[in-house]
Specification:
alpha/beta, L-2-Hydroxyisocaproate Dehydrogenase, Chain A, domain 2, six-stranded parallel sheet, three-stranded antiparallel sheet, 14 strands
């Protein structure tokens, strides 16, 4: 019996996620959106692409949350995208209402699902989804570090003119300007990064990684990134459904690791059929640990701001 994955939000990120899921033969896909006809049209378009791209799973678009029943994984991409000059935090109140509603419906219609949150501001939307679903924290987590890490890997590969698959990196912390690229453990086929690039170039890559989403927003002017975010989400879903036990940075709810408690923050985790099956505590430099702590405090500040909003 094929697995079932539901994607809530039929915009650029959601639709691209649905397509990538189908292309990887991970299961039947349901694309949900409130706009009448839009998810149905995109779902039909993707279904008709199957004979050419060689996938055969069912792809269905719907406006009815009842159709997510029986989902193994639900990916939440719904929400308003960033526009130029807008920070992730600016989206806080608006997207909390959207993700909160999605959480209510997941609880009602797909109570056995694992939830992967993609909506921004990511770490806070994970918290909203956790509260509204009432699921165990191991079953509700966010796609952030995988995206930030792939951006960092791409920038390093471009700077060195090497294959990006040979670049191993890790980006921790909140999904925003306070994220923490861990350069001390970054390697290219086992070669430490500081043996290949001078400190100035490494710092430039770190700063570009932190601003990676904003760079794309500024270029697009009317939207935000969607190819890489969708690919990152699908990599996580693949590890869950195939029980691959991949270790990757995800937004997890912490209760002690790294000296952080009471919020979501990006850390290395093992992903399998149980969702987050283990959190790994890396050995960090004093500066990296302090930066991670500061990043968690920025997330908590947004949580406090959300407390005063009606969502």
């Amino acid at each position: 019996m094929r697995k079932k994955i539901s994607v809530i939000g039929g915009g650029n990120v959601g639709a691209t996620t649905a397509l990538f899921l189908a292309e990887k033969h991970l299961g039947d896909v349901v694309l949900v959106d409130i706009v009448e006809g839009m998810p149905q049209g995109k779902g039909l378009d993707m279904l008709e692409t199957g004979p050419i791209h060689g996938y055969h799973g069912r792809i269905e678009g719907t406006n009815d949350y009842k159709d997510i029943a029986g989902s193994d994984v639900v990916v939440v991409t719904a929400g308003l995208p960033r526009k130029p000059g807008m920070s992730r935090s600016d989206l806080l109140g608006m997207n909390a209402k959207i993700v909160g509603s999605a959480g209510d419906n997941i609880k009602q219609h797909a109570p056995g699902a694992i939830v992967v949150v993609v909506s921004n501001p990511l770490d806070i939307m994970c918290w909203v989804a956790l509260q509204r679903t009432g699921f165990a924290k191991e079953r509700v987590f966010g796609m952030a570090g995988v995206l930030d890490t792939t951006r960092m890997r791409a920038f390093i590969a471009d700077a060195l003119d090497v294959h990006p698959g040979d670049v191993m990196a890790m980006v921790l912390g909140g999904h925003g300007d306070s994220m923490v690229p861990i350069t001390s453990t970054t390697t290219v086929s086992g070669i430490p990064l500081d043996q290949l690039l001078d400190p100035g170039k490494i710092d430039a890559i770190v700063q570009r990684t932190r601003k990676g989403g904003g760079e794309i927003v500024a270029l697009l002017k009317t939207g935000s990134a969607f190819y890489a975010p969708a690919a990152a989400a699908v990599e996580m879903v693949e590890s869950i459904l195939l029980d691959s036990k991949r270790v990757m940075p995800c937004a997890a709810f912490l209760e002690g690791p790294y000296g952080i408690s009471g919020c979501y923050v990006g850390v290395p985790v093992k992903l399998g059929t149980g969702g987050i099956e283990q959190i790994y505590e890396m050995k960090l430099s004093d500066a990296e640990r302090e930066a991670l702590k500061a990043s968690s405090e920025a997330v908590k500040a947004d949580m406090k701001a959300l407390d005063s909003m009606d969502y």
